[in-house]
Design a protein that fits this description.
Blueprint: H1 7-12, H2 24-37, H3 42-46, H4 57-62, E1 82-86, H5 92-100, E2 110-115, H6 118-132, E3 141-145, E4 161-167, H7 173-186, E5 187-199, H8 208-215, E6 230-239, E7 251-259
Parallel strand pairs: 1-2, 1-4, 2-3, 4-5
Antiparallel strand pairs: 5-7, 6-7
Pfam family, one: Methyltransf_16
GO molecular function: S-adenosylmethionine-dependent methyltransferase activity
InterPro entries: Methyltransf_16, SAM-dependent_MTases_sf
Length: 260
């Protein structure tokens, strides 16, 4: 049963079903709505299969796209066929996205949630399977193993992703380099990589955000097209919400990354 508090959010979604397929503008609008879902109890929105104790909570709280970016994509009509999440963990972000997309588009893209550790993948598969057992329709969600250092093109990763999302997945400078290497192999031409980074000014994670900016400023010689490189196209600061997220977090940085 849908939570009573979720219903107003669904009703406020724009009437986008006239579109034959999901455009980037529609997708960006859907990602903005992820922010509002963060205030609902996880079991009510996604089912009991998702653990209550999850590091994905601050990710959803911070939101992916702000309202002031809406004008930027108003004229874009690129159809999106595949979302791919890196470091999906419990899969909460992908599951909320899968649940939200049927409310805003007739033609649904596929979602692939990826991670590395076998135990994490087993839990992720169980959570993804719970979507099929619910009466509410959801977009197709698959789970795949992905090593950032050695990305594969085996199904379902044989199709390049139009949108790549990752949240709070970088904890050291080498992680940022692996992440860029992986994204360069899976992001389609013209695609967008949304990267959310938690800002922790003290302790061992201090400076992680700076390392991301430095590494994405370098040329990626591993790409097949040496004329194009992944670059940070824009970035924005997102405030931490009260009593949500880790105690050492002061806010979040959202990076929009693409080919230039």
């Amino acid at each position: 049963m849908r939570s009573r508090s979720v219903e107003p959010l669904i009703q406020r979604l724009p009437p986008l079903k006239r579109a034959a397929s999901l455009t980037e503008a529609e997708a960006r609008r859907a990602l903005r709505c992820l922010h509002e879902f963060s205030y609902y109890p996880i079991p009510e929105v996604l089912g009991q299969e998702v653990p209550r104790k999850t590091t994905d909570a601050p990710v959803l709280d911070s939101g992916y796209v702000s309202e002031n970016e809406a004008d930027e994509i108003a004229s874009e009509n690129k159809a999106i066929s595949l979302y791919l999440e890196l470091g999906a963990g419990t899969g909460l972000v992908s599951m909320v996205l899968a649940s939200l997309l049927p409310s805003i588009a007739d033609s649904l893209p596929s979602i692939v949630a990826t991670d590395y550790h076998p135990t994490v993948l087993k839990n992720l598969e169980r959570n993804a399977a719970s979507l099929g057992s619910r009466t509410k329709p959801a977009a197709s969600m698959q789970v795949a193993h992905l090593d950032w250092c050695a990305p594969t093109r085996e199904p379902p990763l044989d199709v390049l992703a139009d949108i790549v999302i990752a949240a709070d997945v970088v904890y050291a400078a080498e992680h940022a380099r692996w992440l860029r290497h992986c994204a360069a192999h899976i992001l389609a031409p013209g695609g967008v990589f949304w990267l959310m980074v938690s800002i922790r000014p003290n302790g061992k994670f201090e400076g992680v955000c700076d390392s991301i900016e430095a590494i994405f400023a370098e040329n990626n010689t591993a790409t097949t097209d040496s004329c194009q490189h992944l670059r940070i196209l824009s970035k924005q600061w997102i405030d931490k919400k009260h009593n949500i997220g880790r105690a050492d977090e002061v806010g979040y940085r959202l990076f929009k990354i693409g080919w230039v």
